[in-house]
Amino acid sequence: MSQKMLRRRQKKKSFEEQNINGTNNRFLISVNVLGSSGPIRFVVNEGDLIAAVIDTALKSYARQGRLPHLGSDINQFLLYCANVGADALSPWELIGSCGGRNFVLCKKQIEPQMRETRPEMLGRKGSGSWKTWLNKSFNFKILSH
């Protein structure tokens, strides 16, 4: 027997032993990406991190040429278990710990940043006083004495 065949048999035996002992449970998951046409399905190990699952989903999504283009930065995405609850899964959790097989991948919402800092806004001399600004902002009148 050749070395190559011997290595294959050893790998196959070790893989079968792991499955018999229950140390390498694999299962099929479906990941729905918001704004995409359908789910991405792939096999994961029970011990895989959520971050690795997000990475695999993004790579599969890009490989399939789906739209809209998402990018590959896993830090910009959250994974939710479709059956369990409304909280996003931690990237450091194990995929097998949540108990679900259906997931939703969402891009994080980036909060708009203010262009001016507070002291600049308050110190700015403009066309009116702070009362004028407040009246315009809150749409109510402040009566002066």
From TrEMBL:
<dbReference type="InterPro" id="IPR055482">
    <property type="entry name" value="DUF7054"/>
</dbReference>
<dbReference type="InterPro" id="IPR040358">
    <property type="entry name" value="At4g22758-like"/>
</dbReference>
<feature type="domain" description="DUF7054">
    <location>
        <begin position="24"/>
        <end position="106"/>
    </location>
</feature>
<protein>
    <recommendedName>
        <fullName>DUF7054 domain-containing protein</fullName>
    </recommendedName>
</protein>
<dbReference type="Pfam" id="PF23156">
    <property type="entry name" value="DUF7054"/>
</dbReference>
